[in-house]
Specification:
Largest sheet: 8 strands, antiparallel
Strand content: 35-45%
Number of helices: 3
Number of strands: 16
Order of helices and strands: EEEEEEEEEEEHEEHEHEE
Shape: globular
Oligomer: single chain
Distance between the termini: 19 Å
Helix content: under 10%
Mean pLDDT: 93
């Protein structure tokens, strides 16, 4: 787009502040990256890389449960799961959560072109009600608002939580790791803030007999309506290895985005100076 008065392009480059750290866990490296954008977006990304855990095969043999990535070497199918604890305080500590699903309108006279759809927000009042999973069929997202603070159009100020690439666990719920990591049962959990509730699998997951952390806390079904909220997000990566992952893997990316939704009066990026024009670059 251009400013017709000055005949100059109205372009603003996206800039972000990056805050990162890297953790080495056995044969893997996990990079944790926070991206803070000038338009109010907050993005989190995990970059998974490292060295494959390998097994040996007889000449000509293949495995049903992994991929041949070099002669007589296979890498087993596996998954990585993470859980983020997000203490939300949107313009104050008393917030309210909604699950937002996009639904197509019924066919009929009110939908003559058969392409109408709307976003339907469902108020989440208790912890059990808030347990939920991603749903691509309804473009499901979650919105968090402060009902006591209104924006320029009279709506509560808010942010929308948008999940990125994710997966479901393939292991049975009776598998030991799933008993100890019960947080993988749902992508989204919402709890009232408690200082002592800091780890999704509980304080001692390796000693757990199962059921600790989020499954136990949310089993109390506490109120989350107009409260100091904590959003817990479970996200994972299903790794079906390739020869290209050997000997050192390229990074895989998973994460999420928090986007302002009625939090600002207009695009905060409008205050950023426009990018230089072609003439300022010295181009003809």
């Amino acid at each position: 787009h251009t400013d017709r008065r000055l005949n100059t392009p109205e372009v603003r480059r996206s800039r972000r502040l990056v805050i990162s750290s890297i953790a080495t866990v056995e044969n893997y490296e996990y990079g944790f990256f926070w991206y803070l954008y000038q338009d109010g977006n907050v993005q989190f990304e995990i970059k998974l890389t490292g060295i494959l855990s390998l097994g040996a095969l007889q000449p000509g043999e293949k495995s049903t449960y992994g991929a041949l990535i070099a002669p007589q070497l296979y890498a087993p199918n596996h998954q990585h799961f993470f859980n983020m604890r997000l203490d939300l305080d949107l313009d104050g500590t008393a917030n309210t959560a909604y699950q937002v699903d996009v639904v197509a309108d019924a066919l009929g006279p009110k939908n003559p072109f058969e392409n109408a759809f709307s976003a339907q927000a469902r108020l989440l009042k208790t912890e059990i009600q808030a347990r939920s999973n991603m749903n691509l069929e309804t473009a499901r997202t979650w919105k968090f608002v402060n009902p006591a603070v209104r924006n320029a159009v009279g709506e509560p100020v808010g942010y929308r939580f948008i999940p990125g690439d994710n997966c479901f666990p393939f292991a049975s719920k009776d598998a030991w790791w799933r008993k100890r990591a019960g947080f993988v049962d749902h992508h989204v959990w919402i709890t009232p803030y408690r200082e002592e509730e800091r780890h999704a699998a509980g304080n001692y997951p390796n000693q757990s007999r199962g059921g600790d952390g989020l499954p136990r806390w949310t089993g109390a079904d506490r109120s989350i309506d107009n409260a100091d909220l904590v959003l817990w997000y479970t996200f994972g990566h299903t790794h079906l290895a390739r020869p290209e992952d050997y000997p050192v893997m390229p990074a895989a990316y998973i994460g999420f985005m928090l986007k302002p939704n009625g939090f600002f009066t207009e695009n905060p990026g409008n205050d950023v100076p426009p990018s230089m024009t072609h003439s300022e670059h010295g181009a003809a």
